Amino acid sequence: MAIRTIGRPPLADRLDLPLAPGPPCLPSPAYDAARRQFRALDAVEALASEPSAGPTVFLTGADLYLPGSPFVFGVSLPARSTALVSTFRLEGEVARLASVIRHEVAHLLGLAHCAAPGCLLYPASAPADIDARGADPCAACLGALTRGAR
Ligand SMILES: [Zn+2]
Ligand SMILES: [Zn+2]
Q1: β strands within the chain, DSSP E
Q2: What three-state secondary structure class fits 77?
Q3: CA 9 / ligand 1 centre spacing (Å)
Q4: What is the pLDDT of residues 39-86, one digit of tens each?
Q5: Tell me, what DSSP letter sits at residue 136?
Q6: Active site residues
Q7: Domains of the chain, earliest start first
Q8: Is the confidence at residue 93, as pLDDT, over 80?
Q9: Which of helix, strand or coil describes residue 25?
Q10: Which residues are paired to 11 by β-bridges?
Q11: Centre of ligand 2 from the C-alpha of residue 118, in Å
């Protein structure tokens, strides 16, 4: 699993993880000028076409959204082993960034969202949701993982 930075996202240098440089900026066709945000799915699909040696999580400081969500912390494309995480809404908390990365990596490993409070796979729509969940998947999610969920 590689973690690649897009430009210089805030918080990234405070992560206790090895980082590799990625493209200097998100693909401009994914930018929505009216919302001043990037369309998360368009952006991660374009990034999935970058040459890579394996599953990759990209980090950006730009703000992302999906249809139906005012913003998202991250998005993943498990079929293409690529995820994109934004630091924009994390309010400077590096622990939140680490949690969102782990959450997206879990999606890349095949896990879906989980309704169990405290589970890493609990979906977050606000920073407090990230703070409330644990660092690991719950027992049911771990079971799905070891059974080879896809
Ligand atoms: Zn998720
Ligand atoms: Zn779970």
Answers
A1: 2-5, 20-21, 31-32, 37-39, 56-60, 64-66, 69-72, 74-77, 82-86
A2: strand
A3: 20
A4: 999 999 999 999 888 999 999 999 999 999 999 999 999 999 999 999
A5: S
A6: 104
A7: 2-108 (3.40.390.10)
A8: yes
A9: coil
A10: none
A11: 8
